Amino acid sequence: MVYRALVRPLLFSLPPETAHELALHSLSLLNPRIVANIFARSYTDESLALNRFGISFPNPVGLAAGFDKNGIALDGLAALGFGFIEAGTVTLHPQPGNPRPRLFRLPQDHALINRAGFNNAGAAAFAKRLVKRKPNCVLGVSIGKSKITPLDHATEDYLSSFELIYNVADYVAINVSSPNTPQLRQLQQADQLSSLLTALQKRNQELQQVHQRRRPMPLLVKLSPDLSQEQLELSVDVIVRLGIDGIIATNTTISRENLSSDEKEVTACGEGGLSGEPLKPRSTRMVADVYKLTKGAVPIIGVGGIFTAADAWEKIAAGASLVQLYTGFIYRGPSVASEINVGLARILKQEGFSNLDAAVGCRA
Known about the structure:
Elements: H1 2-12, H2 16-29, H3 32-39, E1 50-52, E2 55-57, E3 61-63, H4 74-78, E4 84-90, E5 103-106, E6 111-114, H5 123-132, E7 138-143, H6 154-165, E8 171-175, H7 190-211, E9 219-223, H8 229-241, E10 246-249, H9 263-269, E11 273-276, H10 280-293, E12 300-303, H11 309-318, E13 322-325, H12 327-332, H13 336-351, H14 356-359
């Protein structure tokens, strides 16, 4: 409540990216125990714990990729009660991203529009930092194509990033769905997706032998909410056929549906991916579609418009095993993960489920 009454108005008086950088820098400097004591109380409930793709998650609420691209504040973020953190998206080549301004708020809609363009210091720098200090949490790393890499060399680009971050990740998310890197979304087409994922799975098996891991690195694919039903079916078919471990549904949308903000305000933001409450219905439908297409056999991370426990419950009931938030974290503040977990435990009890596993897909 302090955040929403005092801190958020201050941060929202700053340009969005400036506020983001200030928050990230502050979290990187503070002791994680201080962060937990000030902003969130740790909350554990056995009913919320679950295992997916060989990883034990203390709770299902994660922070989506995009907030900490370079992995500089992971300890502080982990102290806020998230069950897992997804860092990145990182690319093989360091890149500044698109010109500023590139992040915009639509407060009336509880939404953001961003066209950051994978601004990050590169996979090598990320791995070097994390080798020295891995955070005390389940860590996913999102990898994407470098802007300077031609589409016909995308596979080599992803493979190089994958090799660099292999030893610091608990799972790897393959981002082929950001709207902010030219041509990237073409990699969701069945033939290109199949080629990319086949190469990654082959390299994954090779690295497993080299590093003597008990099992291959879990690979997840992040899909766009803007896929047609036919495109979604073809992409999911590839993912199932190749034995990919999970699907993240969804990335941001280029659609401007469900907005109540002034049209001029929206137009002034320009191009970019929309996230937040307006994305919620679309992403929840896609979670349900993916759950049905995979017959519940492929774990889903549900993303899009999650602000409350009720929002998270919608995704879980539709078929998501885990959920992630980004815009909800910006608007609701550092206690949001703990608040959602407390609420989810209450909802599970009210709905008559003894644990989260039993509830996944109950309304798909």
